Every structure is written in structure tokens, then in C-alpha cells.
From TrEMBL:
CDD domains: pp-GalNAc-T. Residues 447-574 form the Ricin B lectin domain. It comes from Drosophila ananassae. One of its GO terms (molecular function) is polypeptide N-acetylgalactosaminyltransferase activity. GO terms for biological process: protein O-linked glycosylation via N-acetyl-galactosamine. The lineage of its organism: Eukaryota, Metazoa, Ecdysozoa, Arthropoda, Hexapoda. This is Polypeptide N-acetylgalactosaminyltransferase. It is a single-pass type II membrane protein. It is an enzyme of class 2 (transferase). SMART domains: RICIN. SUPFAM superfamilies: Nucleotide-diphospho-sugar transferases (SSF53448), Ricin B-like lectins (SSF50370). Keywords: Disulfide bond, Glycoprotein, Glycosyltransferase, Golgi apparatus, Lectin, Manganese, Membrane, Signal-anchor, Transferase, Transmembrane, Transmembrane helix. GO terms for cellular component: Golgi membrane.
């Protein structure tokens, strides 16, 4: 019996052993199968993802020409005729060379043009507040937007950049792939928020600000490039006083070749037609450069402000629509209600200005005309913040008095609640030099009427365009003092040659003359009258003066080196105020 069992036991054991070994082999085999399967699927997902990423990259970045526009240099190559044509066409569409923009890397380098003492400033990053950058855009060109975002990522200390809130304000050219690309390129740094209908930049910015998590907000346009060290000096003053708002120096990105050009420190203001203007620094401010100085009115698109202070001020007036006057409203509110604005010369941000002859229409989806929208914005700001000085504005822009302004209850209540000061305080504190240039009671003009050529006495200067953007010559009218509007010119108190809304300006070295909206800033629109030689002279500084000269064959005018023997440089005004002309050069710098 025992032997029987033993014999059987051997068999059983052998069987058992075989089963166990078989199971192990089977187990190992299935394990391998699973692993192989798993790795096969994971390589397919990775490669799909990689393909998608490279597809997106190809879509947005494949046209980039290495080194083009690096260091912020003008982006130049030997372009073919076809390429130049493509550039010109893109320029006509958006007012800047978007064809070229697509060929300049979004990661391009920029020359560090800060004042040398700015480079030495040291900040302890732990002590500075982090910021939420808020950018809103409506139909922005993708390559321009990408360059804005890349420059932010590349030149902002990561510790200070909490997030970039990117608000798409109802763009009509939406490319869903752009959102995907932003996600892979900027990961969590960019928070993309889409508004399905356009609400205008004021409301879109407030929406962005409401989403912000950081204590300091930095608002930027969607077509900028920030430079080395831009953020630290911009936010340091806010740490010292949470009611201080700061603005960087705004450099220029050329609309034609994307060159990055130095902007000058200045004090922003507006004139009595609500045009944004730039005044020179006060003497003591110029001496103290690059220390921050007071900036009466911000340019609009680029500024840093404490989130709490921004919302204490009610953000932007909710009645302001689409675009226009919001920088006047916020600036006046900041100053009059207990805060201040400083321009910080050590902080530089480049802004892409469009071709001045291109006009962008933001209100095309809107039922109201653009003029109506902007006029209402103007009137709202004037009614709430300018007190009696609003009449000065209405005198220049009488159409504002008939526009429906909507309810101002909320704004007036805010003004009362925050004990905001009157506009006169603002003028007294910040606008002494402004009042000299733009007096409330304006002195009479130096001369007006026709501008008749003495070389060809039948011909008078006509502001209507001959060649694009340039004035022409027309037959002189009978009445030289009060001619029809196209032939009426005024040598104004601003030392400009104005006809209606436009002024005569010299744009280039060749001395070509154009008509353009008056900017009241002298510069390329500065003109004087030499009563002895009867010359009409362009240029404020003695060394750069040139004289207006008739080109009877071309039926136009140009400027050339002044020559009192040249009859083609002699002109006659319909009326001259000789007494006023004796004082023409009072308080005007000539060298
Ligand atoms: N913008 C917007 N919604 C609008 C109009 C403008 O978000 O309805 C954006 C625009 O894309 C830009 C910023 O607001 O990023 C400022 O506008 P723009 O650059 O035209 O003003 P400018 O620099 O000419 O004063
Ligand atoms: Mn802009």
C-alpha cells in the first residue's frame, strides 16, 4: 500500500511540477504580450501628439526666416517683386506688413536700449508682487500675437509672471488651431478666454481683470514686444504706493519693416479736441532721468496698476464702448481720486503702430457708426470729469453737444464717493505748460486766407489731394480772405499751417509735403512766415529749415533749401496780422 502510494506520489508531484512550470511560462508569455501591446499603443499616441504639435508649428511658424529682424533691426532681404507685392497687399489689409511679420521669429532678440544706470538696478524678486498680464484683442494677426506672448515669456522673470490672461474680444477671424497652439507653446502660462461677441476693449479688459489672480495687473496691447528688465522697475513703485499706476516708455515697432526704435520719455496729455499729445518733460524731471516722472495722461494700452485700486475706481466707465477716450477717463480718475501715474524710463515696451494713413474700423459689427461711438465716449468723459472746461472741448467739437450720452449716475456717484477733486486741480498741478501751449482763451491766428504763389499768381494751395496724401494747386478764388474751405489756410497759434482738420507736414529728407491730421505738436508740422522775404518756412530749429516751393508743372508743392532770390518760394497770405507776427518767435525754441 505504502509503495503504491509512493509510486503514485511521484507521478502526482511530477504532474504538479509540470503544471506549475507551464503556468509560469504562460504567465510570463502573456505578460510580455501585454507589455508589447501597451508599448505599441503608447508609441502611437506619442507619435500622434508629436505629429499634431509639428503640424501646428508648421501652420504658425514654418515661414520664419532665421535671424530676420534679430536684435530689433529692420527686417530686410533682397525680396523678389512677387514678395514685395505680397507685402504691399498685406499692408493695405491691416495697416502693417503682416506678410513680413510671419517671417520674423516670435522669439527674435531685441537690443537692450535701456539707460546704463537702469541695467545696474537690482530688485529682490521675492519682495516684488507677481502680476497678471491682461491682453485683449480683436482680429489680431497671429504672428504678431505670438511675438507679444513669446517676448513676455522670454523677458519676464518667471517668479513675477503669474499668468497671461488673453481675452479674444469677439474676433471674426477665429482659428481654433491658434488656441491649441497657444496651449502647447505656453502651457498654463496663457489663459485664453474667448468672448463670442465683441464688447470693446474697455469691457474686455475688465473681464480679463476679473479673472486675474495676482495683486498687480499689467495691461498690454496685443501687438507689443517687451524688453529686457521691463517688469521689475514698472511694478516697484506700486509696491511703495498701491495707488500708483505706472507706464513704460513706449518704443516703436515699425509697421513696414518691424525695426524696434527708441521712444522718448514724455508727459502724456490731451488737447481740446481730445487728441492724445506728448509734452516734453519738465526741466527737473529731465535732469533726474532715468528716475520715474509724473505722467498726466497715459497713452492707453500699456500700464500697470494694483488690482484693488483698479476696481476701487470702478474699472472703466461701463458706458464706454469699443474704443476711444478710455485712457482719458482712467487717467483723470486716477489723478483726481487720490492716485498718481508715473512713467518709468527704465521699463521699455515696443508697440506696433499702424501706418498712419490706415484707419482701423472696430465698429463694423456694431449698429452705430464709429463716429457716434467715439463721440459718445468723448462726451461721457467730458461730462463727468472736465467740469466747466467741457465747454472748451464742445467749442472745438460742437457735434458732441447733440450726442445722446446715456446715464452718468453711476460715474457721478463714484466721483462723490471717492471725494475726487475738480479738473482745475489737475490743470494747476500737472498742466501749467499745457495751458501755455493750449490756452483756454486762444490768441488770434497769425495769418489766414488763401496761400497764393507769387511766382504763379493764378495758383493757390489746395488741401484736396493731388498725389495721394499730398496737397495740390488750384486756381485762386476771387475772395482771398474768406475763400472756400479747401483753399483756406491758417497759420495758427500752434505754428501750424492748418486747413480744416488737416495740417501741412514734411515727412522725409527729400522735403515732400503732405496733408495730415493736425497733431499740434509742432515738429514736422511747424511753419513760420518770413514777412520780409515772403517765404513760408518749415522747421523750428534754425539748422533744419526749408522753404515751401511751388512746382507748377507737377501742380504741387515741395520744400527746398531756402533761397530769397527764388521767386518760386514767395507766397502771399489772404490776411496777415502783422502785430501778432512780430511776436511769432516768443517762447519758441530755435536751437
Ligand atoms: N481691442 C479689443 N476690442 C476692440 C477694439 C480693440 O480688444 O473692440 C484691442 C486691440 O486688439 C488692441 C487693444 O485693444 O490689442 C488696443 O487697440 P488698438 O491697438 O487699436 O489701439 P491703439 O494702439 O491704436 O490706441
Ligand atoms: Mn495698439
Amino acid at each position: 500500500m505504502c509503495i503504491e502510494i509512493l509510486r503514485h506520489k511521484k507521478k502526482v508531484l511530477l504532474l504538479l511540477l509540470l503544471t506549475v512550470a507551464g503556468s509560469i511560462i504562460f504567465y510570463l508569455y502573456t505578460l510580455r504580450l501585454e507589455r508589447d501591446n501597451a508599448s505599441a499603443t503608447s508609441t502611437s499616441t506619442t507619435s500622434r501628439l508629436e505629429r499634431e504639435i509639428s503640424d501646428l508649428q508648421a501652420l504658425f511658424e514654418s515661414k520664419v526666416v532665421p535671424q530676420l529682424g534679430d536684435l530689433g533691426r529692420p527686417a530686410r532681404r533682397n525680396w523678389t517683386a512677387g514678395e514685395r507685392q505680397a507685402m504691399a497687399q498685406s499692408m493695405r489689409g491691416v495697416g502693417f506688413n503682416s506678410w513680413l511679420s510671419q517671417r520674423i521669429s516670435s522669439e527674435r532678440s531685441l537690443y537692450d536700449m535701456r539707460h546704463r544706470s537702469c541695467k545696474k538696478l537690482e530688485y529682490s524678486l521675492e519682495k516684488l508682487p507677481s502680476v497678471s498680464v491682461v491682453i485683449t484683442y480683436h482680429d489680431e494677426e497671429a504672428s504678431v500675437l505670438l511675438r507679444t506672448l513669446s517676448s513676455l515669456r522670454n523677458r519676464t522673470p518667471i517668479l513675477l509672471l503669474r499668468e497671461i490672461i488673453l481675452v479674444d474680444d469677439g474676433s471674426t477671424n477665429v482659428d481654433p488651431k491658434l488656441s491649441d497652439f497657444l496651449q502647447i507653446k505656453f502651457l498654463n502660462m496663457v489663459k485664453h478666454h474667448r468672448l463670442d461677441t465683441q464688447v470693446g476693449l474697455m469691457k474686455a479688459r475688465v473681464t480679463g481683470a476679473q479673472l486675474a489672480l495676482a495683486d498687480v495687473l499689467v495691461f498690454l496691447d496685443s501687438h507689443v514686444e517687451v524688453t529686457q528688465g521691463w517688469l521689475e522697475p514698472l511694478i516697484a513703485p506700486i509696491l511703495q504706493n498701491n495707488r500708483t499706476c505706472t507706464t513704460p516708455i513706449i518704443d516703436t515697432i515699425d509697421y513696414d519693416n518691424f525695426a524696434y526704435r527708441r521712444g522718448k520719455p514724455s508727459r502724456g496729455f490731451f488737447n481740446w479736441e481730445f487728441n492724445y499729445i506728448q509734452l516734453p518733460l519738465l526741466k527737473e524731471e529731465a535732469v533726474a532721468l532715468p528716475a520715474p516722472h509724473k505722467n498726466p495722461i497715459m497713452n492707453g494700452g500699456l500700464f500697470a496698476i494694483g488690482r484693488q485700486w483698479f476696481f476701487d475706481l470702478g474699472g472703466y466707465d461701463k458706458g464706454l464702448k469699443i474704443w476711444g477716450a478710455e485712457q482719458f477717463e482712467l487717467s483723470l480718475k486716477i489723478w483726481l481720486c487720490g492716485g498718481s501715474i508715473l512713467e518709468v524710463p527704465c521699463s521699455r515696451v515696443g508697440h506696433l503702430y499702424r501706418d498712419p494713413n490706415f484707419h482701423i474700423h472696430y465698429t463694423h459689427q456694431n449698429k452705430e457708426s464709429e463716429k457716434k461711438v467715439i463721440s459718445r465716449n468723448y462726451r461721457r468723459v467730458a461730462e463727468v470729469w472736465l467740469d466747466d472746461y467741457k465747454d472748451k472741448l464742445f467749442e472745438k467739437m460742437p457735434h458732441l453737444t447733440v450726442i445722446q450720452v446715456g446715464s452718468l449716475t453711476e460715474e457721478k456717484a463714484l466721483k462723490k464717493r471717492l471725494h475726487c477733486k475738480p479738473f482745475k486741480w489737475f490743470l494747476d498741478q500737472l498742466g501749467k505748460d499745457f495751458l501755455n501751449l493750449y490756452p483756454v482763451v486762444e490768441p488770434v491766428d497769425f495769418a489766414f486766407g488763401v496761400l497764393q504763389s507769387l511766382a504763379s499768381p493764378k495758383l493757390c494751395l489746395d488741401r484736396s489731394e493731388g498725389k495721394p496724401g499730398q496737397p495740390k494747386l488750384s486756381e485762386c478764388p476771387d475772395d482771398h480772405t474768406f475763400p472756400e474751405s479747401e483753399l483756406k489756410w491758417t497759420l495758427t497759434n500752434h505754428r501750424e499751417l492748418r486747413s480744416g482738420p488737416v495740417c501741412l507736414e514734411k515727412r522725409n529728407q527729400q522735403g515732400d509735403i503732405y496733408v495730415f491730421q493736425c497733431h499740434g505738436q509742432m515738429g514736422n508740422q511747424f511753419w513760420s512766415l518770413n514777412t520780409t522775404s515772403q517765404q513760408v518756412v518749415h522747421g523750428q530749429m534754425g539748422s533744419s529749415r526749408r522753404c515751401l516751393e511751388i512746382q507748377p508743372d507737377a501742380k504741387g508743392v515741395t520744400t527746398r533749401k531756402c533761397d530769397s532770390n527764388n521767386a518760386k518760394q514767395r507766397w502771399k497770405f489772404g490776411y496777415k496780422n502783422n502785430h501778432r507776427l512780430q511776436h511769432f518767435w516768443d517762447n519758441v525754441k530755435t536751437s
